[in-house]
Design a protein that fits this description.
The protein is mostly helical. The chain contains 11 helices and no strands. The longest helix has 20 residues.
């Protein structure tokens, strides 16, 4: 019973509509009416600018971390690593689902990448660093946030299954499902990438203005 309530709470944490609140409070708009029409950090960068984009991204990452941290409310998980990891994955996934389908925003949210990163940070920080490192490297050289997110997500199963060779079966399944989920939620981006019409994000103003 406690587990079910905490998973529900994790979903509500993930449902917190960061980008929607910021866009309405500071810009008087619904961010879902602009850009890629979702509440993700990437769209926030494009529509609201880097300053608010970073704020939204950080909050969305923290949502994933807070949701996973709810396992502390059940003391028995502190001494059982297997059960703890499985429960943390459940809590994190509930938050990611909440971000994608937020109850507080008519179930129309973002793609869950930032919240997913927060979840992985809370479960296994070293793996999160690897995934985020791939994201940053790809973003620096291509300026495609969507491609960076996809390859960063694919790095998760690569890290879990091969680099660290984690033996926990649920963790391995989770890593594979995450990569699949990110690819599925970025289908439109993949289509635009293949057509060569995906939007790029300026990283270094001097360099990127020259290229554009």
């Amino acid at each position: 019973m406690k587990e079910a309530l905490l998973i529900l709470l994790a979903y509500f944490i993930g449902s917190f509509p960061t980008a929607l609140i910021v866009s309405k409070k500071f810009f008087g708009i619904d961010i879902r009416d602009y850009g890629s029409k979702n509440m993700g950090a990437t769209n926030a960068f494009r529509v609201l600018g880097p300053k608010f984009g970073i704020i939204i991204m950080v909050i969305d990452i923290v949502k994933g971390m807070l949701a996973v941290g709810l396992f502390y409310f059940i003391p028995s998980y502190l001494t059982n690593e297997l059960l703890r990891t499985n429960f943390m994955i459940g809590l994190g996934l509930a938050a990611v689902i909440g971000h994608i389908f937020p109850v507080f925003a008519n179930f129309k949210g973002g793609k869950g990448v930032a919240t997913l990163l927060g979840m992985v940070i809370a479960i296994q920080p070293v793996v999160a660093v690897c995934c985020f490192g791939v994201f940053l490297i790809v973003l620096y050289f291509t300026r495609y946030v969507s491609l960076s997110s996809i390859l960063g997500a694919i790095m998760l199963p690569v890290s879990v299954l091969w680099i660290w060779n984690e033996h926990e079966i649920l963790y391995r399944i989770f890593a594979l499902l995450v990569a699949i989920l990110v690819v599925v939620t970025h289908q439109k981006n993949i289509s635009r990438l293949l057509k060569g019409c995906e939007n790029r994000m300026p990283i270094l103003k001097h360099r990127d203005k020259k290229k554009d």
